[in-house]
Amino acid sequence: MDSSKKIMGMLAFVAFIIVSGFSLYKWVRFGTIDGGSIFFSFLLLSYFFNWITWGQHEGGGEKDELDRHIQTQSAKIGYFALMILSAFILFVSEGVSNLNDIDNYPLLIMVGLTFVTLPITEFIYSRKFK
Predict the structure, then answer these.
(1) How many domains does the chain have?
(2) Is the Cα torsion angle 92, 40, 49, 63 positive or negative in sign?
(3) Are the beta carbons of 34 and 20 closer than 8 angstroms?
(4) 111 and 86 in contact (C-beta within 8 Å)?
(5) How far apart are CA 86 and CA 3, in angstroms?
(6) pLDDT tens, position by position, for the chain (130 residues)?
(7) Which terminus of the chain is more exposed, N or C, with fewer CB under 10 A?
(8) Which residue, among 52, 62, 42, has the nearest Cα to 11 in the 3D structure?
(9) Whole-number Å distance between alpha carbons of 85 and 70
(10) Does residue 62 sit in helix, strand or coil?
(11) Is the pTM of the predicted complex or chain greater than 0.85?
């Protein structure tokens, strides 16, 4: 990675630290949680990881076989991690272990959709080759 790409990666990381630090400061000092700051913190963090992985924020241009394999495996692992974390957040935020006591229906539907997204996608994609 050349020096300009390293500088861009560092700038993305510094921007992430500034935005997340400001969000943390507002939470500790004033007791307010800013949804926009949280969203942009995650956006900047993803920008940073794309820069250090591929050398650009869009996730790379021309890819060889190894790059495609890395992306495929990362996507599948990320999918399962997101599934587990969303279920964890649902049960922690609701504070219940009985599914009938859950009141946050949008989050419950999101967790349910995480369980069916991969099988449906694989089914549709497999039809392309059969």
Answers:
(1) 1
(2) positive
(3) no
(4) yes
(5) 38
(6) 567 777 888 888 999 999 999 999 998 999 888 778 888 888 888 888 878 776 665 555 566 788 788 878 888 888 889 889 888 888 888 877 776 777 888 888 888 888 888 877 878 887 887 6
(7) C
(8) 52
(9) 22
(10) coil
(11) no
65 in Cβ contact with 23 (< 8 Å): no
Other CB atoms within a 10 A radius of the CB of residue 14 amount to: 12
Separation of alpha carbons 42 and 118, rounded Å = 23
Number of H helices, E strands in the chain: 4, 0
SS3 129: coil
